[in-house]
Amino acid sequence: MAGSESWREYGPSPLPKVLQGALRVFAEHGYEGASIRDLATAAGLSVPGMYHHYRSKQEILVSLLESALTDLIGRCRSALASAGGEPIARFDALVECLVRFHMFRRAEAFVASTELRSLEPGNRDRCVTLRDELQRMVADVIEAGCAAGVFSTPYPADAARAVSTLCVGVATWYREDGPLAPDQVVERQLVLLRSLVGLR
């Protein structure tokens, strides 16, 4: 992500057409409920045409998950870089980044969180490594806040997992036509999550 504030910006999905179609199918039917024919139809391709782009349904899923996770990691790194060194500012920026991603890339976030179970072992290891990198960012920010005396939670590791879980959960309930504007969602989540880490 280029630019100090570009992590807040969301335009149309950057996914290629094949993956956009697959994303819709996986989000609606799940990995197990989707056939290569379903994926090809969603992409406007024949089955042989689909195999020209991807060797298998598994490869399509891996491409989707890696794309979502690397996008989110890049945004989180940019958010932290723009926040400076103060623990509270870093926590707020990271939470905002996670919440915005799970609002504006809901389908990607949903599939990434629910279909890790469908990955074959080697592929799962690659995606879990990316997920763990994200979780380490959250844990590091909270541990730094505790060390600085600005967060009072006695359980920073548990708090880090809870923060991630609540941010991921936004993808399951946020709707663009809902009662809250994106900035309001971010504001409310920050209130809840600052309390969770025991902001002094």
Automatic annotation (TrEMBL):
Signal peptide (residue range): none
Keywords: DNA-binding
Short name of one Pfam family: TetR_N
The UniProt record lists the keyword Transmembrane helix: no
UniProt DNA-binding region: 35-54
PANTHER family recorded: HTH-TYPE TRANSCRIPTIONAL REGULATOR RUTR, TRANSCRIPTIONAL REPRESSOR MCE3R
Protein's name in the database: AcrR family transcriptional regulator
Organism: Actinomadura livida
